[in-house]
Specification:
By secondary structure, this protein is α+β, with helices and mostly antiparallel strands. The chain has helices at about 5-10, 70-85, 85-90, 115-135, 150-155, and strands at about 20-25, 30-40, 45-50, 55-65, 95, 100-110. It has a six-stranded antiparallel sheet with strand order 1-2-3-4-6-5.
Length: about 160
């Protein structure tokens, strides 16, 4: 699938997902930015899409907030624990972007991917990214919370974050 076909696929998302506010070309080649959320409450989540044509996949990614300095170690430990649960997260994983910000990442295989399936995957991805964003904006995990003892869904009042 070439970039033109990917752009057509992304163009079909709007009618399938009311939370999509904007889909636009990204600054990097073969990339797009999708903005989801409700402008009235100010909660807009940006999800990047990178077309990896040689691997026949789309990569979804969203940069998140930096945890408080005193909470970095336990928060990054939790993010690594999340990485180890790829079978339960549908392949979602955490990484650090070029600026050192935590980011949620997910690969989607292009063969057989239609707009409806992409819209559902994008919604689940954005919901989980927003949950992690809220948690990190609240400072992340503190040193008294060992990974596995807190629930990011409860911490952020979101229900779509995996309990780790």
């Amino acid at each position: 699938m070439d970039d033109e076909k990917v752009e057509e696929l992304l163009g079909e998302l709007g009618p399938l997902n009311k939370s999509i506010q904007l889909v636009q070309r990204g600054s990097a080649p073969s990339s797009w930015d999708i903005f989801l959320g409700d402008e009235s409450d100010g909660e807009i989540m940006s999800v990047g899409v990178s077309h990896q044509s040689q691997d026949r996949k789309l990569v979804l990614f969203s940069s998140l907030a930096v945890p408080d300095a005193e909470n970095e170690a336990p928060t990054y430990e939790m993010l690594l624990t999340f990485n180890g649960l790829w079978t339960e997260t549908g392949g979602q994983r955490m990484a650090l972007d070029g600026d050192g910000l935590p980011m949620l990442v997910m690969d989607l295989s292009l063969p057989g991917l239609d707009a409806s399936a992409l819209a559902a995957q994008l919604e689940a991805f954005a919901t989980r990214a927003m949950s992690w964003q809220v948690l990190l904006e609240q400072g992340g995990f503190d040193a008294g919370q060992a990974p596995g003892t807190d629930d990011p869904a409860e911490a952020s009042n979101q229900e779509h974050v995996l309990r780790v």
